[in-house]
Amino acid sequence: MAVIDRGASFQFLPFSRKQKQLLSWWMPENSPYADYDLVIADGSIRSGKTIAMVNAFLLWSLSQFEGQAFIVAGRSSGALKRNLLRPMFQILHSMQVPYTYNRSENYITIGSNTYYCFGASNEASQDVIQGLTAAGALADEAALFPRSFVEQMIGRCSVKNSKIWMNCNPESPYHYIKTDYIDKAEEKRILHLHFTLDDNLSLTDEVKERYMRLYQGVWYKRMILGLWVIAEGVIYDMFTDTNLYNDNTRPEQLRGRSRRYISIDYGTINPMVFLDIYDDSTDLWLDKEYYYNSRKEGRQKSDAEYLEDFKQFVGDEDPDYVIIDPSAASFKVLLRQAGYRVKDADNDVNDGIRMVAMLFRTLHLHIHERCQNTRDELASYVWDEKAALTHGQEKPVKQSDHACDAMRYCVKTMIKSWRLSAYEEEK
User: Fold this and answer.
1) Which helix (H) or strand (E) holds 279?
2) What was the pLDDT predicted at 261?
């Protein structure tokens, strides 16, 4: 039975056939895959793969081992707590199995076993698991992990009869999880289970239809159909006139009830962009833009000139934060000397794009009609199909992307993942 949190209580729902397969594949007495080393559950969002995998991982580790160490990993510490630890604790509670969670040291003790918790946000993440000898690993959203972490994680599982459990949503068909593991599942003795929305029996037809409406293009193919497809065409194809507003539809007293951010994409030869963005804790409002193209204007400006332009753009009321590309070292110094609170932008491109796309899809990101350069860029901001086909890389074409970059900096740096999860769950 699957455990679903309904506030303070639990509701028990039957597993689907696919979830049952994930639950039992490791059992020596009745599974042809019991001697396999790794299972990968991929497919659409909300398909029930995570809750089934957490449940199965707990049953397997607690029944097969005593006094062993295990790896539990998410793409970040926040995602780990939200997506893995929360359902894990719910399941343990429902099973009446006592546990101890050491928050400061990031490990869980269940019986005589210890489950070490890790975030896998960058290449350096692999360093934290070096030297650990583990009997198994559970990796949530594994396609968002650096290759080095996954390889290190697998290498750490050297105890006899150890197994690795991974789930993910699809990415590019050239992603290493697809090419090195799923495509070689038979020769590497990997069980690959593909999940769809229909594999989660807790979803009503109404909810399924809502998710289908939320996504389109490559996002629909990946998140709803669960397909490993190339990202092609316009990146923000979900951006429409419904995301626009004007002075007549602008919320009253927007500044008074919002945090104000100025997000900067720094350029000398390339355009310099300032975006004035208000966050009212529910929605983001891109209210005005500064866009100086030195090529078009026929003259480059100095940092000192840009600082004066910035002061005029900001006006008398300072923003809560100025968010800027970390590489813009010289201009960052000038901003701080002028008294502005400056924050280095989180420049994770693909994750930032996912976040912006979600805000557009759920109508929580709005663009003022007067921001014409931003609107023009959104219409021409496309995936680099050549990079995908020749190098297996998923990235945007580096042109007409300056306002898009500035917008992404703000979203990725200032918006918490839990807000996006809440938007996705809205009726």
Assistant:
1) strand 272-279
2) 98
DSSP SS3 for 346: coil
pLDDT of residue 213: 87
Give Cβ neighbours of residue 36 (< 8 Å, ≥ 6 apart): 25, 163, 189, 190, 191
Residue 421, both tokens: 């999860």
Q: Which two tokens stand for residue 50?
A: 């995570």
Residue 150 counted as domain residue: yes
Report which DSSP code applies to 237.
Answer: T
CATH number for position 262: 3.30.420.280
Pairing of strands 321-324, 259-265: parallel
Helix axes 372-380, 402-414, angle to 10 degrees: 90
The yes-or-no verdict on residue 1 having pLDDT over 60 is no
Tally Cβ neighbours within 10 Å of residue 186.
Answer: 8
Count H helices, E strands: the chain? 17, 17
Q: Considering just the CA atoms, what is the radius of gyration of the chain in Å?
A: 24
pLDDT in tens, 205-256: 999 998 898 888 889 999 999 999 998 889 999 999 999 999 999 999 998 9
pTM of the model: 0.82
Same structural domain, 42 and 90: yes
291 and 183 both lie in a single domain: no
* Same-domain check for residues 180 and 306: no
